[in-house]
Amino acid sequence: MVVLFLATVSVAHPAAAREMLRLEQTAEAMGSTYSIAVYGYDRQAMESAVAAAFDEVRALDSMLSNYKPDSEWSQVNREAASHPVHVSTELFNLLAACQEYSRQSEGAFDISVGPLMKVWGFYKGTGHLPHRAEVMAAMQKVGYRHVHLDAAHETVSFDRAGVELDPGGIGKGYAVDRMIDVLRQKGISIALVSASHSSIYGLGAPPNEPRGWRVLIRDPRDENRTVAEVFLKNNSMSTSGSYEKFFRAEGRLYSHIMDPRTGYPAPGMLSVSVIAPRTIDSEAWAKPFFINGRRWAAAHNPQGFRAFLCEDRTEPSCAYLQ
After folding, report:
1. Which of 78, 152, 154, 321 would you call most buried, defined as having the most Cβ atoms within 10 angstroms of its Cβ?
2. How do residues 85-143 score in pLDDT, each as one tens digit?
3. 210 and 318: one domain?
4. How confident is the model at residue 17 (pLDDT cuts 50, 70, 90)?
């Protein structure tokens, strides 16, 4: 279902005051809700650009989905343990980027967490507490070093059976960037694209707010409270929080954010928001910051990035990374 909203905003113009249109639409794709807000003067051009951006994310679903059996991603998961699988240049480059994120994060970011997501019940479910033996068995199939990329032939192979890639830690950010690219190509210069409110890119600045698009960071323990506000202008923000998917068992909360090196949900953090020039980067880096904690994040924060962390204490401690 697509929801459309149009409004007018008066904006100064050298010749005369013109009516600037605001257009908003939402659509479901890749298991998430994507929303687009754009400003401009030509309603037809704006509608065409937004439609093209949604076409792009739907096309990406056929490449990145691990739920659709005919997607490229599913083919890799099915066949790469038995023979090298040739993939599109786009998917190969994305997988190569994921390998680099894994190396830079010391394994905290790892798209091979598929077996863990299943054993913990977060694949098509709300989660459950597995036996330790189940976790240890899944861990035998996890690790980015089991994924081998051949750049000369653009193939992907696994060195053992049972390895399974999960796009959940990278797909939304990549899709938001591609949608922004389409909007730019269609002449849009002011837009906000959001994937389930967790991966967001602000293009330009909306009328009457030169600082950029105002985005709120929620209190991880109270969805009705805000702990910070950010203005995005040609910048992105992605948030990983323990409140997104979780379950309680034996008096503890277990979130969907897995440490692929231990096989268990990462403790110590409630939420992490990363601000970066590209949404794929902000989404990817939010995971290792969440998993490795504030001290590691301070030592490894990429140049030009900002991060806002809420640590799990009796009284939540939320602050920007220094």
Report:
1. 154
2. 999 999 999 999 999 999 999 999 999 999 999 999 998 777 889 999 999 999 999 99
3. yes
4. low
- Identity (one letter) of the amino acid at 12? A
Instruction: At 229, give phi and psi (nearest 5°).
Output: -125, 145
44 and 73 together in one domain: no
Structural Rg of the chain based on CA atoms: 20
Query: What is the pTM for the complete model shown?
Result: 0.91
Question: Distance between CA atoms of 174 and 95, rounded to whole angstroms?
Answer: 11
| Residue 175, C-beta contacts closer than 8 angstroms, at least 6 positions apart | 29, 30, 34, 56, 57, 60, 64, 195
- Looking at residue 228, what is its pLDDT? 96
CB 321 within 8 A of CB 303: no
Angle, helix 279-300 to helix 89-104, in steps of 10 degrees: 20
| Residue 92 identity | F
**What total number of domains does the chain contain?**
3
Residues 284 and 181 in one domain: no
12: number of CA atoms within 13 Å, CB side?
Answer: 2
